[in-house]
Design brief:
With about 190 residues, the protein is an alpha/beta fold. The protein has a single domain, classed as Beta Polymerase, domain 2. The strands form two sheets. A five-stranded mixed beta sheet has the order 3-2-1-4-5. The protein has a two-stranded parallel sheet with strand order 6-7. Strand 2, helix 4 and strand 3 form a beta-alpha-beta unit.
Amino acid sequence: MQSREDILLAIEEDEWMMSILRTVRTIDLPDWWICAGFVRSKIWDVLHGFEKRTPLADIDVIYFDSPNVDESFEKEWEHKLRLDHPNEPWSVKNQARMHLRNQLPPYRCAADAISKFPETATALGVKLDDAGSLELCMPHGLKDVLNCRVAATPFFSRSKERMRVFDTRMNEKNWPAVWSNVQIDHYHI
C-alpha cells in the first residue's frame, strides 16, 4: 500500500467497510465522513499483513449541520444506523457543535474539523459520493499513515496544552502494541 488509490482499492474490496459506508450514505447526513480509526486501522492492518480486521472502539461518523446542533439529533442518527448494523459501535458527532466541546473556534465544515484531529495518521475520512464512488479526505496527506508514523497535526503541535492531550492519547492508545511498525513522534514545543 503506497498511495491514495491503494487505500481506496483496499476499502472498496472490503465488504464490511463498503456495507458500513453504504448504510451511512442512506441516512443522508449533510457533509458526512467516516473517519479516524475506520480508515487508519484499515491502512495499518494492510501494511502489517493482518488477515483479520483489528476491532474498532467505535465507528466515527461525523457530519456538519449548523441549524441542528442539539446532541439529540446525533443519538437519532446512531439509532437509525443501528437498525441496519445493530452490533456496531456507532459514534455520530455533528462537527458544527464539537468546537464547543473542544473549546475551539467554530469549524467551517467537516473537513476543517478533521484537519484539527490530534494526529496526522488519524486525520482521515472516507465517504461515498452521490454516484457511489469513494472519496478520501486527507488534510495532512498520507505520508505519515503510510509510513506508520504518528505525529501531531499542525493545529495540535502549536499548543503546549494540546500537545499534552496528544501525549496522553498516545499513552492510552498504545498503537505500537497492536501494529508493531507504528512509531510515535513525541515532541514538545
